[in-house]
## 1
Amino acid sequence: MAASIGIDLGTASILVYIKGKGVVLKEPSVVAFDRDTNKIKAIGEDARQMLGRTPGNIVAVRPLRQGVISDYTVTEKMLKYFIQKAMGKKSFRKPIVSVCVPSGVTEVEKKAVEDATWEAGARDVKIIEEPIAAAIGAGIDISKPCGNMIVDIGGGTADIAVISLGGTVVSTSIKIAGDNFDEAIVRYMRKKHNLLIGERTAEDIKIKIGSAFKRPEVDTMDVRGRNLVTGLPKTVTVTSEETEEALRDTTAQIVEAVHSVLEKTPPELAADIADRGIVLTGGGSLLRGLEELIEHKTGINTMTAEEPMTCVAIGTGKFVEFMSGRRDD
């Protein structure tokens, strides 16, 4: 029996799920390569350490942008590396691989993901839409005729979908997610504090004190960067209230997308969602106050899945089991 693995091919990180073992690998989707020799220097966490810190000839890149392949060759090599790392060197049989893609991708983009997975050494490839994978991973029984709303916020895209009877009824995919939160913080720091910071520092701020909704307690953090006026290193203290201000426009766009999907939802399913609530998945849903913000704007109970980071990977892997189970019947 060939191993079946599920891959959450994310803009920020790649997770690999193996049947019977769970999520065996979680690494950043970053590749560092040498421009002079065109050789890959590092993949995953080792490459992430190099972001913004490399000499001219070595570049650390993210081959996936907004959930879509932007550099085909690098993505293929990265996939091959992660599949081999997850399977172990002793594996002789090629695995059956299911990969998830954002719900808004075109057929061409879907084909690129499929081809890259074949080239990386898969025996069979299944493509699954992200919201469906997220719902399965969050433990929702999607086979029933009942409306469930999933908001999956990743690194590059946010997918919002209403699922019933195992399929998507209404969905939208917007290119606003975790990376945009980081960019909004970088812009805010430059404008408000005349401080230039990198992506990694912005991500640290988001994780430690980032907030999408006014909170009773105020957290602070010391941030180091380069002063744009003097050109010298400088440290400023940032509060969680400031991050709420910095992220306001970006989070509003996600709320707007949730609102537009609710507007298009058939009344029977809308009633189900009002009863059951909205489920948030994906790394972006870990931003504090996002649940409260969506609940405040829609009036619908909103909760985050138990393991939001791994939901999509688990769901993608279980989708293969679900399909093979149906084939065995």
## 2
Amino acid sequence: MRNHHIRLLFTIMLIASAAALTGCPQSASPPGVDVDADGGASSATPSGTIRISGAWALYPMTVKWVEEYRAIHPEVRIDVSAGGAGKGVADALGGMVDIGMVSRAIRPEEISKGGWFVSVARDSVFPIASEANPVLEQLRETGVTRETFAAIWMTGEVTTWGQAAGTENTETLSVYTRSDACGAAETWARFLGGEQEDLGGTGVYGDPGLTEAIRKDPLGIGFANLNYAYDPKTDLPIEGIFIVPLDVNGNGRLDEDEDFYATGDQVVQALSEGRYPSPPMRDLYLLCKSAPEGATRDFITWVLTEGQKYVREAGFVPLDDETLAAEMKKLEQQ
């Protein structure tokens, strides 16, 4: 019996020693929280869900950002959907999403409702036609002036492809516009001196829909955001689509510094160098109902810092250092 008690005591001592060596600390930090050297919680690791909706223009860039951000923050779920800048603004200000993607200037009334926003990249809107266009070669040589585009969409004074290209062709233009409230249409209209409601033509929903309509219509003319005019896999215009050159200086011919439409990379370079007017070049924004917090704030901070290295490769124009500093200041001041 004595030996049995000794063995039992010895076993208890071994168990106690093991518990002392391997047991949990007195206070454990909750999941997703880093612990500093003193055992207290430090900065929280981003977690939760971020909901994003809005502009078709910014959608491809945002998808790329989300992929790269989640590679280092897999604990954050991010849902992204496109539906036009108008939807992004309404969803964000209405609290339906955390971030709205906006491809036009933020309006004063949206700011007065508490809207908080930052610029995150740049791109442009381009006029597009079918590769089967009857005056394609003439358009390649002369381009089309802003005044002619305005006469097509705004006043309806130009109705044939011959008038648009300066030839005798009498085939009637098929004019298309966007049916959804979107940054592309508003930006294109601003370039032509009006508002989206002033644009004539058959309304089509979304960039993909309008591009497809033009592709199927040899007499069609429309407009598209940069990343829906060019194929990201080939860096060439979407198959069946012709980017109608803009005669920027209006001299009736496409000069060397105006001829940069062969590839998406050439276009981005031209935009970066200011060889295309603004509008239709424009800033792209992320909009929140109020100053962002938690994972949303962390994601936007990452977009303005590490995320900028993905902008050019995704076919967008990166922000200049001065603009980036100004946008980062908005985060720091909140």
## 3
Amino acid sequence: MKAAYITTPGPPENIIVGDLPTPEPTGSQVLVRVKAAALNPVDTYIRGGVIQMNIPLPFVVGCDLAGVVEKIGPKAKQFKVGNRVWGSNQGLLGRQGTFAEFAAVDECWLYPTPNGVTDEAAAACSLVGITAHLGLVRDAKLKAGETLFVNGGTGGVGSMVVQMSKALGARVITTAGSDEKAKQCRDLGADAVVNYKTEDVPARIKQLAPEGVNVWWETLRDPNFEVAVPLLAPRGRFILMAGRDARPTFPVGPFYVKGCQLYGFAMFNATPEEQQAAAADINRWLAAGQLKPRIDRTMPLDQAAAAHRLQEESTVGKSGALAGKIVIKP
């Protein structure tokens, strides 16, 4: 099979696109013919060695996939050959990735693709959708009628947070850096959008939510707690899912006196059961048209290295070149 893989961690140029043996599903694995795979920032961190994980070599990159079940392992029971499926959590913790024509995936990490939903959409929703759901539902327990603020409503996770929060009945405030992106946020369902380049963001949030925001979802790599904590409502919840190297100051007193809670998590540490619960809602919202991933561009597998470079420049380099997900087509 054709695959995008590395033999040693390093820059995007270390990615090789070539032939590897097609994996054989064992145990409760199924073999998926990959129709679409999506790129995430974490993929670039693992490829570059920024996140230290024991990975098999050669190592196929990529976390997300959508496709068709080609073959069933001897202990697999949930799917049949020909079923359309999507999933994430590959290319992590010793598992081979998804940037290949085929991937052997344990069925506990796979979910049925709803009728009428494209493989590209399912793949693009995978990691970012499960991440957003874990933070909103499992951790923050966002309720209808509450107010949520998310930094960056057009990003991969941010756009999922906006749409899911609206599906859950919340009021959503978010930020954008241009009139065009502000419109995109509103199209996703945001109730209010603050232009962080032309407006005083804290003052505007205070105006929009004078009693404070119930849930603050932070996507920035360097969170500013001194600004955010005063804007939280009593018993507010703060969600962290970025900023691996960040070491910000934290206003302990104002935080605990208001009875606030801080949640930090990495999606790949969630159990299969937790991710399956997220996938069930994601499928329901995808089928109903309440959840639509933002796809910036689709690229062939041969351009995997260029895709990684573009993602890295946009995320780490903060170029802003991407306005959505990169989807890879094997």
## 4
Amino acid sequence: MNDNPVPLSRDELLRAYRMMKTIREFEERVHVEFATGDLPGFVHLYAGEEASGAGIMMNLRKDDNISSTHRGHGHCIAKGVEVKGMVAELYGRSNGTCHGKGGSMHIADLDMGMMGANGILGAGAPLACGAALASKYKKDGSVGVSFLGDGASNAGNFLESLNLAAVWEIPAIFVVENNGYAQSTSRDYAVAVDSYVDRASGFGMPGVTVDGTDFFAVHEAAGEMINRARKGGGPSLLECNMIRFYGHFEGDAQTYRGLGEVEEIRKNRDCLKKFIQQVTHAEALTHSDLDGIDQEISVLINEAFDEAQNAPRPTEADLLTDVYISY
């Protein structure tokens, strides 16, 4: 382990904070706007989990590919998908990332290496295997990263993907973002193993568990796995133990959570608060540095929602576009 509590440059720290803060403000605003009834479809928020997505994505290149989940906004933003396009997509507008046809659960941007969020549990794992296999054949040093929740870790397609990745010895990283509940059932009730790292060992691949609320712990562990994969070391599994501030989906009554639990985690287990404390205590960044970023993000989010609400919707002529690909 690195003894330096903030082993990144000033510019890297600013980038990491901007990434996490953008995700947080995006999700908090979506929470408010969804309650108005203007956003179509289901929404699953990533607020509280920002250190995982940011810590991993800070180690990735543009040509690395990721697959996401139904809770994919944070992964999209961290991978570099344009925020205004994402907001327009949530509103189903023609200038959205997927021209208004994907919505919250199916945002994709192949140019940025974002292969897509996915409403099917564990379905992104085979996609990441495909990307990693392509990288192995092309010998370009890129990696495929699959994000999934603790509930999806029980899905057959995920376990099959672990086996494929191990057999093929491909540069794939499987990230289990363990928020403890799957949808509304405690992982202690529904999962036989104590740690998801045990799943990795069953397929002969290394695995590590980290505090998913600690950006630096995630960043370091992910960096080691990704560098190993780039050098031909094969697949790995990273378990990030974390929390989510909101329910499984917007509208979830969260009756499965304990009294005062959400208030306690917001107060004591907020990954953004932890990051701010770490960097300011180490005098790597000042509160003034962070306040300036906060103001810029506030402007961006306000502009994104204002523009999206006034953007045009897809027309009848757009129905059959983006359905088939021609070579």
